[in-house]
Amino acid sequence: MKNCCYLLFLFTFVSCQCPNTSITPVDVQALMNKWEKAYIHKDTSLLAEVLHDKYLYAGNADGSRTTKEQVINELYSSDYQILKVVFEELDIQCFGSTAIVRGNELIYLLLASGDTLQVPLSFTDVYQKNNGMTRALATHSSPRQ
């Protein structure tokens, strides 16, 4: 009996020490909400938590890629405000510690001129969960009608 209790304690202790590395749709939704919040509030610290250090965005009109640092700098210095982001037709596929998220988004902007603009995009994101922390690794987006 004593050995059984010891093994049960040991198993519980060891299982609690292992970081959860399997990503779930709940992790993905939480990161997407955090990302939207960072954009709406122009919170560069929060955005830095959302984006992996090796994050890359592809989808610029000139074909260039944008790094994490560039995305954060753009948010900081932008003369527009993101009012909200509406996600549609989300397809979340989880593969161990990695998730691929495909869908559409409609970004509502308030421009410096006072005008509003809606930007419809299709996107594919790659997320990774490591040591209990979920972050975005890559995004590709393109305009849609």
UniProtKB/TrEMBL annotation:
Alphabetized Pfam families for the sequence: DUF4440 (PF14534)
InterPro entries membership: DUF4440, NTF2-like_dom_sf
SUPFAM superfamilies per UniProt: NTF2-like
Domain DUF4440, first and last residues per copy: 28-132
Domain of life the protein comes from: Bacteria
Name of the protein in question: Uncharacterized protein DUF4440
Organism: Marinoscillum furvescens DSM 4134
